[in-house]
Task: structure prediction
Amino acid sequence: MTTISNALELELKNLKEKAQQEIKSITDLEILEQLRISYLGKKGQLSRILRGMGKLNREERPHVGSLANEVKEALQINLDQQRQILQTAQIKAQLIAETLDVTMPGVNRPLGRLHPLNSTIDRVLDIFVGLGYSVATGTHLETDYYNFEALNIPPNHPARDMQDTFFLTDGHLLRTHTSPVQIHYMEAHEPPVRIVAPGRVYRRDTVDATHSAVFHQVEILTVDKGLTFTNLKGTIKEFLKQMFGKELPVKFRASYFPFTEPSAEVDIQWQGKWLEVMGCGMVDPNVLKAVGYDPEVYTGFAAGLGIERFAMVLHQIDDIRRFYNNDMRFLSQF
Ligand code: DAH
Result:
C-alpha cells in the first residue's frame, strides 16, 4: 500500500464519520438536501476525494474504489433514514396543528336584534301591506299648514291644546302626529289611496311612565269611491285580529277628531281589561277638499295608533321610558 492510498482511505473514513454525525443532527429537510449535495453531489466532497484516485496504482484502485462506493451507499442510507424521520415528524406536526377539537366551546358572537318599537312597527306594516296598503313616510319638521290647518284644525281651535307643540323660531314645528303624511300623500297622488305611514312624533309632554316627548305612531289612510264606516270597522278588526293573534272583543266608542267625521276610539278587551288602542274615523270632507279631492265623489277612512302603547300591551311593559334607556338587560329580551 502506498501512502497515497492510505491517505485516501483515511480521508474516506473521516468523511463518512463526519457526514454521519452531521446527517443525524439535521432537523430540516432542505438543509438535509443541501448536505447531500455537499457530500455526494457531482462537485461534492466525495467526488473531490475520488479525483485523487488518479494517482493510485492499478492494483490499489479497486480497493479504494469499492471503499468509496461503500461510503457512498452508507451515506445514502443515512440520508434516506434521516429524511424519513424528518418527513414523519413533519406530517405529525401538521396533523397536530390542523386538529379540530369539535368538543371545544364555540366563540360567543352576540347577535344584534330589532328594538321592540321597530319590531312592533314592522308587524303593523306587514299586516297592512298584506291588506294591499303601501308604506308612506313624511318629515319630522312640519309647517302649521300640514300639521294642523289642512287637517281641519284652524288657528285657535281648541284641539291644538291636546297636542302641545314644539315650535321652532323659524315658524316650523316638530310634527305632533303622523296625520300630516295624509296631506302630503294626497297632494301628490290621485285616489284610490291606501297608505300606512309609520314615524316619530313630538309633543311637549312631561315624561313619566306613560308619556314621552318623543314617541311613534302609525297612520292609516284609505280613500276611494263608496267607502263607508263598515269598511273602516272591517279593516280595523282584521288588523287587530292579526296583531293580537286572535279575535278579541272590540268596541268603537264615539269620539272627536277634527280631521274625521264621524270619529271613534277603538277599545279592545285584553287580559280582562278594556284598553284604548287607536283613533279613527271617516275622513272629514274639509280634509279631502284641502287636497283637491271631490268629497261628493270620494270618501275615506283614517286611523292613527301609538306604537309604544301597542308594544307595551303586547309585551307587558310597565314603563314607556324602558324603550329609550338602552338598557341591554331589557333590550336583549326581544
Ligand atoms: N292624529 C291623532 C293623534 O295623534 C290620531 C288619529 C286619530 C289619527 C284619528 C287618525 C284618526 O288618522 O283618524 O292623536
Summary: The beta strands are 134-135, 141-142, 173-174, 193-202, 214-224, 250-257, 260-270, 273-283, 299-306. The pocket of 3,4-dihydroxyphenylalanine is lined by residues 177, 179, 219, 257, 260, 279-281, 302-304 (CB under 6 Å). The chain has two domains: 3-98, 116-331. Residues 3-98 form one domain.
